[in-house]
Amino acid sequence: MTLGERVYRALLRLYPTAHHRAYGDLMTQTFRDGQRDARNQGRMALVGWWWRALTDAAMTIVIEHLEARKKYDMRNLFAKTNEPGTWPEAFAGAVSFIVYGTLGILFAVNVANGIMPRLGPLGWSWGVWIVLIGNIATAVVLAVGWIKGFPRWSYAALLPLWFYSDYLTTLHIGGQPAPLTGIRAWLPVLIALGYALLRTRSLRSLWVFVTGIWQDWSRLSFLLYGFLAVVIPLSGDETHSAARVPLTIVAVVFMTIGAVAYVRAESPGQRILALFGGMMAGSISIFLFVMPYWNGRYESWMQNPQPTLDTFSLVMQAANVLIGFALILFSPVLIAGIRRVVTRHDLPN
């Protein structure tokens, strides 16, 4: 064995163990053949060949270690996506539905008298306090999710937190001006995520957030499902139906159950059913008072009255909306198809 071959064999040990075991002998033979051919062409050819061999080895060692680390992370992440969440995790996944759902219920109870009592030393209306408390609770969920590497249960917090943080900047309740404007409305988000960033001292969780969706597309569906926490309080806006309070409560309960069932599910199929069931039951509960209320209705602020539809037309209109919701909610299934094509392409022939 030549000195050059001994050096190259030592260099091969810098590759990941699995790669070295699988390809070490083949790479050594390739090196031996290349060195022999270069030596036959002269000293300068041998020096050039050694330079290419060393630089190529240095680059591929780094690349193979990165790939090995990525595969290890993906295997662990994929294993975790198939484990059912604990009850505390299920509660964390349902926080946005609980807090913002409570806001919707309180709005429904209070809409009859149209008065938003002002509470606390700041003189804010209770509506502002509920939204702010909801933002703080949801921001805590998102921060804990960041620290833990964005588990499945943390995805639903993103959209409602973003929406209501922006909503607070222009919120007018009971004719009162917005008490929080600009960056003040975003303080719960900034503080929570700032703390998470200080704890982890890394942006790697954002990469895990994305790769988590790549490995388990239902996470993106759960993220979209979280926007239903926005729909609950706003869906009955300007309605004064007697059925609004009980049906809003029913919608909140169904959507919360869907979130809990998703986190607790043990298989992708169960997760899909959990989200579909929560979305359908919650949405139908809202439609039962919203659609009849506005059917043919005329308010002073309207330019024209709403069209009057028969029962069949109302049902078909609701069905079209539900189909649209379902298509949006489960559109991430396309990720599974893309992933399957990419996986097949990467497999050796």
Summarize the structure.
The chain is mainly alpha-helical and 349 residues long.
Descriptive account of the structure:
By secondary structure, this protein is mainly α. It has 2 domains: 3-74, no CATH class; 87-346, no CATH class. Helix content is 72%, strand content 1%. It is built from 14 helices and 2 strands; from the N terminus they run ααααββαααααααααα. A two-stranded antiparallel ribbon has the order 1-2. Strand 1 (118-119) and strand 2 form a beta hairpin. Helix 1 (3-12) packs antiparallel against helix 2, helix 5 (126-147) packs parallel to helix 7 and helix 10 runs antiparallel to helix 11 (244-264). It is elongated and about 95 Å long. It starts with a helix and ends with a helix. Residues 72-81 have low confidence and may be disordered.
Helix proportion: over 70%
**Secondary-structure element sequence?**
HHHHEEHHHHHHHHHH
Mean pLDDT: 80
Q: What structural class do the secondary elements suggest?
A: mainly alpha
The major beta sheet can be summarized as: 2 strands, antiparallel
Strand order of the largest sheet: 1-2
Uncertain segments are 72-81
Strand content: under 5%
- Gyration radius over CA: 29 Å
What overall geometry do the principal axes of the alpha carbons give? elongated
What count of structural domains?
2
